[in-house]
Amino acid sequence: MLHFEGETWTQGAFLREVQRLSGCFSRLGVTAGSRVVLMLENSPELLFSAFASHQLGSIAVPINPRCSVAEMDYVINDVEPSLIVSEGPMALGRIANLTRDGFRSDRGDLPSEQDRRFTGGPAAGDAAFLFYTSGTTSHPKGVLLSHRNILACLESLRQAWHWQENDRLLLVLPLFHVHGLIVAAHGSVWNGSEIVLHRKFDVEETLRDLQQYGCTLFMGVPTMYQRLLEAGATAGSGLRHQPFAAEQPHASLDSIRLFVSGSAPLPASTHGTFKRMFGHAILERYGMTETLMVLSNPYDGPRKAGSVGVPLPGVEVCLVDDSRQQVEKGDIGEIWVRGKAVFHQYWKNPNATRASFDQGWFKTGDVAYQDEEGHFFIVGRKSVDIIKCYGFKISAREIEDVLLELPSVAEVAVVGVPHTDKGEEIVAFVMPQQRVRDRTETCVEMGAAQLESVLREDVIGFLHTRLAHYKHPSRYFLVDALPRNTMGKVSKIDLKKRKEVVR
Fold first, then answer.
1. For residues 343 and 74, what is the distance between their CA atoms, to the nearest angstrom?
2. What is the pTM of this model?
3. Whether 13 and 94 share a structural domain
4. What CA–CA distance (Å, rounded) separates 41 from 493?
5. Are residues 269 and 327 in the same domain?
6. What φ, ψ does residue 320 adopt, rounded to 5°?
7. Which helix or strand (DSSP H or E) is residue 194 part of?
8. 339 strand-pairing partners
9. What CATH number does residue 345 fall under?
10. CATH number of the domain where residue 468 is located
11. Do residues 254 and 261 make contact, with C-beta atoms less than 8 angstroms apart?
């Protein structure tokens, strides 16, 4: 069952919309293997279109509807679509303009038992989706995911997260990303559970519908959880309209059995505060477009703050050094992944495909270490989160986690910038809490003494008790916001390019 802005589609009604659209797409020339670009906001129409594409054996290509014209042109020219599905006028391609008035469905009974899980016409090995990764130093790469990849991931998550038919997911994630469209939406359809779909994330609407619909699942990114904490601390979670003690779990979220976080690192401080305030330990997991879900904290048992857990069922993971040798527990290495959910190729890019694999292992570019119990802790990206200063390999995330312990720091990002003597210089971008931010200017470079006076914390003294001296940032910038992509990840490439930083 799907709920959206006051309307409800039963499973039978959902399938009838899919069948209706698949007929429409077929008449417009969509066939097996052709590409269908989906350029839609979060809506039932996007889900109907994706499953109609599956039914025809075509390849769905979700695009952020707010992407730039240049980004849109690049993807469309690269995939050569048979059809572009959009809610508004576009200058390129054959267009199916889907409007709310065009998709009013009759309320039907539940389909028969054998029809409850949607199964389309293509074979398991056929391509289902083409997702474009966010390019940082070059054009985005198209990740081709097969039905087999998706089903392997969904079955793994069903086992790991105890996903059941009576679950009800509040879905606020963008559907042009694998987190929202595959993990959340397709996961719900695969398990026959309900979806309460939002057009976008809004704190008050999220808290309202978690309670109103009695939702049992919520999937978000760290920035969403931070906004929920801020709302809970100031307005009784926006539900009871009264302040409550941060040490008391909030009873209005008792229907939720699982909060999941991904797509960006969840600070340990956010994990701890959320558990104290709402009575729930967020389950952090790790994956990427090319691999789908890889690691997850356990559903049963302790969920370690700062850890992304252990390999999911059917997934193999190892950590490898620069010599392609597996590292010991406690040592940092690049994450390599192998399993049925891992993609096989980049779209029309055989060179990138070859460079990304080594003897069947996909090289993620992310670096991590394992503790003695086998839990993985992400350090960051091999390219931007490992800073080489004075010959030392330094984790940017380690510094960020320490700075986030300061009560006057809301968010922080640490980067390495080229330096003649050091190799790389450690630079910290600090976004203060609002009470401090009101007294600062945007992107102001400050020395340690100035930073101390503005944040009203002994930053240098604090770092001395927590980090070796060579890990201390040599420059600080106070900012009122950090640049982020659509999934909430901080764009460190943009920070490294800022004119205030480059010397």
1. 22
2. 0.76
3. yes
4. 27
5. no
6. -130, 140
7. strand 194-197
8. 315
9. 2.30.38.10
10. 3.30.300.30
11. no
Beta-carbon contacts of 478 under 8 Å, excluding residues fewer than 6 positions away, are 430, 431, 432, 440, 441, 443, 444, 446, 451, 454
* Contact predicate 168/192, CB 8 Å: no
Give the separation between CA 408 and CA 90, rounded to whole angstroms.
46
Q: Is 369 helix (H, G, I), strand (E, B) or coil?
A: strand
Domain presence at residue 129: no
- Kindly tell me the number of DSSP H helices and DSSP E strands found in the chain: 15, 27
Q: 415 and 372, same structural domain?
A: no
Q: How far is it, in rounded angstroms, from Cα 162 to Cα 313?
A: 12
Angstrom distance (rounded) from CA 299 to CA 285: 11
pLDDT digits (tens, 9 = 90+) for 212-271: 999 999 999 888 998 898 887 765 444 433 333 334 444 467 789 999 999 878 888 889
| pLDDT, tens only, 46-94 | 999 999 999 999 999 999 888 777 778 889 999 999 998 987 544 333 4
The Cα–Cα gap between 211 and 367 comes to: 38
How far CA 385 is from CA of 72, 246, 328, 362, 490, in Å, comes to 29, 33, 20, 20, 11
Shared domain check, 331 and 264:
no
How many domains are contained in the chain? 4
- Give the closest residue to 436 by CA, choosing from 400, 401, 410, 398: 410
Phi/psi of residue 159, each to 5°?
A: -70, -45
Domain hosting residue 4, numbered range:
1-122
Same domain, 6 and 89: yes
Using alpha carbons, list the distances in angstroms from residue 80 to 56, 70, 98, 390: 17, 15, 20, 48
The single-letter DSSP state of residue 263 is S
What is the token pair recorded at 160? Answer: 């790991």
State the amino acid at position 151 in one-letter form: L
Decide: 246 and 275 in contact? Cβ < 8 Å: no
CB-based contacts of 263, cutoff 8 Å, min separation 6: 177, 179, 221, 487, 488, 489
